[in-house]
Amino acid sequence: MDQFWCERAWLPTGMSDSVLITSDGRHITDVRTGEREPSGALRLSGVVLPGFANAHSHAFHRALRGRTHGGGGTFWTWRAEMYDLALRLDPERYLALARAVYAEMAVAGVSCVGEFHYLHHDRDGRPYANPNAMGEALRQAAAEAGIRLTLLDTCYLAGGIGHQLSNTQLRFGDGDAESWAQRLDELADDENTRIGAAVHSVRAVPLDQLPTVVEGAGPKRPLHVHLSEQPAENEACLKAFGRTPAELLHESGALSARTTAVHATHLTSADIELLGSTRTTACFCPTTEADLADGIGPARELADAGAPICLGSDQHVVIDPLLEARGLESGERLRSGQRGRFSPRELLGSLGEHGHASLGWPSGGRIEPGGPADLVAVRTDTAHTAGCLPEQLLLAATAADLSTVVVNGRVVARDGLHERWGDVGALLGEAIGALRES
Ligand SMILES: [Zn+2]
Description:
This protein is of the alpha/beta class. About 35% of the residues lie in helices and about 20% in strands. The protein contains 14 helices and 17 strands. The strands form 3 sheets. It has an 8-stranded parallel β-sheet with strand order 6-7-8-9-10-11-12-13. Strands 5-14-15-16-17 form a 5-stranded antiparallel β-sheet, covered by helices on one side. It has a 4-stranded mixed β-sheet with strand order 3-2-1-4, with no helix packed on it. The longest helix is centred in the N-terminal third of the chain and has 17 residues, at about 90-105. Bound molecules: zinc ion (ZN). Zinc ion binds near residues 56, 58, 226 and 262. Zinc ion (ZN) binds near residues 56, 58, 116, 226 and 262.
């Protein structure tokens, strides 16, 4: 039995003082407020929040950070650089890179990551001896970094609507949805890992294959899909089928309460209604959407229509869930001319419970008995946070203000250092350096 004593913690019932949290070593078994600090408990100062879910990650994109800003361009020119990078990875290098990226996430307060994984096969598209070698590398990386993983194994079959995969995309493809589903079936959950499924996008999965993917995912696994990140996707879809991507997904049975639509940037009001009425979650990735010049999606309208909102760091221009939450609200302010479009409590829900639910861990993201013992202690005495109201800390703090991160009842990071590896910068530098030399 382990105990954590929090000066102040944000519980489902609100902000509370002197909170004693007991864990059985993995889950929370008891939460009491107004308790004196017992000897032997780990003291967590400042404000303690539930662990954050990073609901959308492509781990290898981290190697592009700070390297793509030289020549202007668009989402599509950035994508060409990303494909070049993808060709350099093999299971061993991917393990080293993902381990460092997930360690960066642990230090930033992430307790669970959703990895939207499509880098399945060898460079020429041939499967490795273990066809899931790349996915298994990600599983190992998350376990070593001390965070939970939902491996969203992604079906990626086409290079665009009506186009075959290009040479640089060959390693993403399984040939058809049936073969993808068979490979998915070889993957199993474990204590730290959930297996989920993903449709890369309506660009990458032909219409006649979509129902097989939805069926192959099974009725319980989380199902994620990139949706309307760029206007060009909508235009191509409308031209080919006379329907928006959201309409196409709905007709194929892909929208439901277990589904998460990632980005959901360029939507019609009918699309918003479809996502809301099916209780599909929308995953916003505000720092990426700004970085790639995607646009600002209708987050408030989606939430009002009934779609839970969660957050992801996607291509990892930044790994800082607090900045994603602030980006969600900032985007709303910029597009509406109004402040307070999402309350701090709503932002906490996007960081915690909605993200965990989207990744198939419905008891995560809240500090209450039965949930995983994931705790993020935010300092209230730093240059960023001194003088802030505790309830408004989410609009001021960054990952640099975290003192302690606990995942599954274990301390994984303290004061910006990973418990296992210390300085994550060195780990990242080594993994990215090895890729660049290859
Ligand atoms: Zn993505």
